[in-house]
Amino acid sequence: MIVRIAPAIIAMFLAVGLLRDSGALGILADTVGPATARLGVKPDHIMLALLRPVSGSGSLGFLAGILKELGPDTFDGKLASVIQGASDTSLYILAVYFSSVNASSMRHSVVAAFMASMVGFAAAILACRIIFQ
């Protein structure tokens, strides 16, 4: 079982490292940032929402940085915490589960997982607006 799952896990860790270290998430967050600024969502929140479906440990480390910089009791800190809890590491789960059963196609599952993550992100913003402001 481990022999079948290991390549998917290694590939996922490699992809996360490349995304984080290349700055691609930061570029994407800065591109979308002006549109989301009207909602009161900072680029750090967007980066967290983009990183969360890919890497649980990476997003947790990023959350720790947000909380250290902005404070855990601020609206931004609370929003980041709710974003962290509103979604799961979808790509990791898909990679592990689909490789363990030797599935050949994940195309609809990946789209559904990303849509669910974006719904979780929107719900986190809405919930924080209602509860904390």
Features:
single chain, 133 residues, mainly alpha, elongated
What are the low-pLDDT stretches, counting only 5+ consecutive residues below 50? none
Helix proportion range: over 70%
How would you describe the shape? Answer: elongated
Q: Please work out how many helical segments DSSP would assign.
A: 7
* Class from secondary-structure proportions: mainly alpha
Total separate domains = 1
Provide the β-strand percentage band: under 5%
Distance N terminus to C terminus? 49 Å
Radius of gyration computed on alpha carbons:
16 Å
Verbal overview:
The protein is mainly α. It has one domain. 81% of the residues lie in helices and 0% in strands. The chain is built from seven helices and no strands. It has helices spanning 2-22, 24-37, 43-51, 56-70, 75-86, 90-100, 107-132. α2 (24-37) packs across α3 and α3 (43-51) packs antiparallel against α4 (56-70). The longest helix has 26 residues, at 107-132. The N and C termini lie far apart (49 Å).
